[in-house]
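2.7 Reproducibility. Because tokenized structures are sensitive to small changes in the input, we list the exact sequence used for Heparan-alpha-glucosaminide N-acetyltransferase domain-containing protein, including any N-terminal residues retained from the expression construct. No trimming or masking was applied before prediction.
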Amino acid sequence: MNPMQKERSRLISLDFFRGITVAAMILVNNPGSWSNIYAPLKHAEWNGCTPTDLIFPFFLFIVGVSISYALGSKRLDTASHPGAIKKIIKRSLILFGLGLFLSLYPKVFTDPIGAFENVRIPGVLQRISVVFLVSAIIFLKFSNKSILKILISFLIIYWALMTFVPVPGVGFANLEKETNLGAWLDRTILTEAHLWKSAKTWDPEGILSTLPAISSGLFGILVGVYLKRKDKIEAEKIAWLFTIGFIATALGLIWDLVFPINKSLWTSSFVLYTGGLATICLALCYWIIDVNNYTRFTKPAVVYGVNAITVFFISGLLPRTLNLFKVVNEKGNEVGLANHFYQSVFVPNLEPLHASLAWALMWILFWLGILWIMYNRKIFIKV
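Resulting structure tokens (single pass, no recycling of outputs):
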């Protein structure tokens, strides 16, 4: 029996989808040069949605689906809830701590006081931790119908807050970068010192936009619950998932007319649009991989998927660690080891856009090799 067959007790399509998503995260986070990036690998400037903008909401959707599978057996056993919630809180704190460490590293070792004074508190792992915490507890404590109502309520409440509540110091509700209600709240509570360094006046993983981000997780939970149903034949499940995905995507595009699809604001239309597309993608993967049992091509993505958080975290640390080691380049300047390797090997031999992409692809292949070995040795690190 090959390793992929042994994984049949898991939803292989979910591991595959998660792996593709995490590999895409690494691809867009590690260009050789931020000045030379192909358009699809950039975030939308503000309103709109590029393929890169789909990655994070897809991951939160997958978090939701995973919750429905991981905690499904404990849901009806209310006696087990205290222990389950304790584990949920512990995992959330670990994820949040890892995110903070990424924000602090490596400055925390060279200037610890300065590092903490200016650490960015929001972040990708931090948002994942909060979404996981809230979504998992809601899953344990509420029925499926109630979860749907909560999901919709969060989207409506966020839309109302962002479009009707006057912004202090501005005087009117708006959806601009620095003057929207979410940006004001981030600056008020976190202060500019602890926000995204590229903006300092707002944060794409800010406080208020975490509310609709939780809806992305709840969307995944409901899809996972439906996938687990034993009273439906597989063809019916897939047909309904495609239908739900299409409807949600269409509703997102309609809502976009008055509440623009925007990843940085994580608008309600963005939640529906990306949730719908994620449902369609998962349904397609489920049909091909789990229903028709076409699994021979899945291992590269699955090895990423089963150690997703681990590779995301370490892939953020390694380039920074390499750049702590300085070398003198041909111009006599000290540069980090990773930067020197990129500038001396990739830049002279490729066009700027190709060199930047090749550097990112090199990291994908490098981590694939490491994760392949870990998978074959059954090393699965759970955070």
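The first helix runs from residue 3 to 6.
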